[in-house]
Specification:
This protein is mainly α and about 210 residues long. The protein has one domain: AmiS/UreI transporter (Serine Threonine Protein Phosphatase 5, Tetratricopeptide repeat, Alpha Horseshoe), CATH 1.25.40.600. It has 8 helices and no strands. It starts with a helix and ends in an 18-residue tail after the last helix. Keywords: Cell membrane, Membrane, Transmembrane, Transmembrane helix, Transport. It is found in: Cell membrane.
Length: about 210
Amino acid sequence: MGSVGLLFVGAVLFINGVMLLGWVDARSAAPMNFFVGGLQIITPTYLIFTAGGDPNVILAASGLYLFSFTYLYVALNITLGLDSSGLGYFCLFVFLSALVFSWLNFTRFADPGFGVIWLHWAFLWLLFFVLLGLKQDRIGRYTGAVCAIQGWVTAWLPALLLLTGGYQQFAGTVAVALAVFGVVVYGGLYVVLGRGSDAAPVAPAGDRSVPA
């Protein structure tokens, strides 16, 4: 069930990313954030209630709420035209939590693939803290590009591997490939996009309220 949710995380990351790039109107992205935010509440709640008290299942499921509340916060910010600072500082909280979940995947769960994936997500949430919380609009397009790319490489691809039963076979390869990919691609994108002062306008009222 969690794999299905991960597949749609890929969709909302991509939509939010291209919205920050100015390819999609912000209000048209709000429904997807509501849909996936709601799904990511239902999924971990189901997993926790059916875990039979297994602490590892409960611990793994708890991380999904970080996504659900982020997407719902995004959707409400867009719909209500709220200032982005509250969402930005929530992203700081999630960034630090994502680092913990990365460490847990490397150690407690012995899953290096998702250990690296959680590092990717931590980096993205950090970017949104800088963009929305600290109001550094110059990284708006860079953040959008990273977000859109992560939708495919950290959610869509792992979800398909999990759903088709191929993840365990390639978990080590996924970890190494994504680690190298992150350094090379995000570094290259920063050279191209991260130093610019232009950022895609985001409705309503130019508020950059759309993170991962």
